[in-house]
Design goal:
The structure is a single chain. The termini are far apart. This protein has 85 residues and is mainly α. It contains three helices and no strands.
Length: 85
């Protein structure tokens, strides 16, 4: 399987997205440092995805991006906790 060659602009875009997710994860840890059961983390992810859907329905791409970052950071947090168990 041959890997695709990415354009610099795509890498820059992905770097921005990953950095935004990293910043949101740091914010989450600061605001909510407590450990929750995985089932509650899953509820948080579903809530974030509902906010993505709402932003899409409103055709608000700025909010859609922000909510996608929040959802991705929540998924990352849950994955971190799964690996720690």
């Amino acid at each position: 399987m041959e890997l695709p060659v990415y354009q610099t602009s795509n890498l820059d875009l992905r770097t921005k997205i990953i950095n935004d997710i990293h910043q949101e994860r740091a914010r989450q840890d600061h605001l909510h440092p407590e450990k929750l059961p995985l089932s509650m983390r899953f509820v948080t992810i579903m809530e974030e995805l509902g906010e993505v859907a709402e932003a899409l329905q409103n055709k608000d791409m700025e909010s859609t991006y922000r909510e996608l970052i929040d959802a991705a950071a929540s998924c990352l947090r849950m994955a971190e906790e799964v690996l720690k168990e």
